[in-house]
Amino acid sequence: MTESEMAARKVIGEAETSRGELKKARDELNAARKKKGSHLETILKNFSTALEQAKNNFAHDVNVCDASNFVAPNVSIYVGEDVFAQLVAVNFSADSGNDGKLLGNCTQKVETLGRLVEEIGVYSNATRDNASKALQHADAAEKSAKEAEERAIDVVKSEINKKWSEICAAEGNMTALSRKVTELERQRDHLYKNLSVVAELSNKTMNKALVAVRNCTAAAAIAMEAMITVLRTTNETGRVVDANSTCAKAYANVTNEDGAVQRVLRDTETTKAHVGKLHRDVNTSLAAGKSQLEQMKRNFTALSEFTNGGHLVLFGSARFPANINVLKLSLENATKIYTKLRSITAFNASRIEESLTSFGNVVAGISSNLTVAVVHQKGAADNVTLAETKAKEVEEETRAVLKKALEKQRARLCDTVKQLTEINNKTTALQKEAIAVRESEAAQLKRASAANQRAEDAVTRAVAAEPHAAEATAQYQLTGEAFRSARIEAKHLVKNAAASLQANEEHIKKINNNFT
């Protein structure tokens, strides 16, 4: 600081002090003046009261201070005493000297302050150029401040656009994440559906394999039995045994492949609860993200109250503006907006992405399980095809063996039928002979009976004929016994022959039916 500046500051300080003293003196003078005025009002009131007593309403009709118009009223002796008492109360103060002293003091203070002002004027002339320069600097500073204010407002506008871009990006990110979740849900449902199809195919494959191996086993057993019991040879069992062995191996392979399929299905079923939990986590994180995004939108839209009645953006429109243009914005409102913008937290999609990754991993695991299940199911289906092929081969070989066995058995049965036919013919002839014998015996019995009758008649005619009669009687008895024995034997023979014929006929009929 220069010497002149210091001197000027000193004079200014003295002027400030003098101004304070002048203010004090002026206040004292004003107080005295107000006191004097109040005293005069009291005197006027007392004088007016005296006049009122001297003459009614005189004080209200005449200005008592107008000497040219004032005339003292005539006062009667009766009211003179009261008027005199009121006039005695009219007492002018003797403080006129004090008032003059106060006025002189105030005048002195004014003169002192005037002198100091003149000195300040001298210093002011010396510093006028500096003041002009300072004013120029102040103008430049004001201009710079305005430019800085405009830049600050532009920065806030830029931050508004950046925050809007951030919200738009968050909106797009949320849409993309929601689509990914929807796609994963679709994949999961599709995979579960395909696994159900694989499970159904697995059941059908196992049933086919079981039917094929049963056919193989049954046909092979029939072929082996036919070879051993009918053909009485094992030379032709090789192809049947090989085909049956291949069929059994194919069935074992089907069982192994289906076991792998069932393990995959069980593992997938076990993880369904975990998949459901991860799916719920994804939906929860999505809901939280949507809630955060909606809050960001509301907070951003609420900034409109600081834009002089304008609107920053209308959310929900079909096409969002790419850039927000705030035409009028004060520095104060820009500062408030900037503070509010800083309070709008950045969109955090990390939790959604983490839960989505976990959900995507388990869906990928289900896809891998489906791939494994399909591979094993294909292996099982291929082995079922092989088993069915070998079952057909065993059946064909069995048919060939049975054909040979049936041919051989047919030949044997034909011989049996031929023999039975011959036996039937002989039995029929024997039956006829038995019937003839039975008829011959009946004729002889009839002749014996007639001879016995003649003998009895002869007894009556002559005693000499008695020996002959006795002999005839004996012959009759012998003939009767022989007849009875022959009749019993013939009856048995005829009965047995009939039963044998019936049995042989049924046997022949059964053989013919089996070969029909």
UniProtKB/TrEMBL annotation:
Residues 15-42, 131-194, 392-458 form a coiled coil. Keywords: Coiled coil. This is Uncharacterized protein. It comes from Trypanosoma vivax (strain Y486).
